[in-house]
Amino acid sequence: MGLNSKKPVLLTLILGVGIIAGAATKEQALTGVVGDALCGREHSMPGTPVACIRECIGKGGRYSLLVADKVYVLETTDQALLDTLEKQSGLRVKITGTDNGKTFLLKTVKPEPPE
Asked: Long-range contacts of range 16-25, CB-CB < 8 Å, 24 or more positions apart?
């Protein structure tokens, strides 16, 4: 079995990996509640959940989005997006961006009406 007979298999593998990698970085839209990655779903500090979120963020935590049973850790350096997340702490928002498997790279944040 020579190199020429392996070319179709190699090409198929390369194309398959490229398709999977492209799908993993496709832009997504999610709707959920703004939280913080330190506490996740259960806020441990006394007071309101919003006060806990802001305290955790103030201590260097990251914002998160709670969607059903999943917690997405949000990543952005855009100050306008961070300001919107701060104002919407504990509230429903719709976000767009890409999930890299570890964090959700944020592109937009828009307030949503309560359920």
From this structure: 24/99, 24/100, 24/101, 25/98, 25/100
Q: Can you tell me the distance from the alpha carbon of 21 to that of 17, in angstroms, rounded to the nearest whole number?
A: 6
**CATH T-level topology, domain 28-111:** OB fold (Dihydrolipoamide Acetyltransferase, E2P) (2.40.50)
- C-alpha 32/C-alpha 93 separation (Å) is 6
Indicate the DSSP class of residue 42.
S
What pairs with residue 92 in β-bridges? 33
Q: Are 64 and 40 a contacting pair, CB within 8 Å?
A: yes
Please write the tens of the pLDDT for every residue from 95-111.
999 999 999 999 999 99
As a whole number of angstroms, the distance between CA 37 and CA 103 comes to 10
H/E stretch holding 111:
strand 104-111
pLDDT digits (tens, 9 = 90+) for 46-75: 889 999 999 999 999 999 999 999 999 999
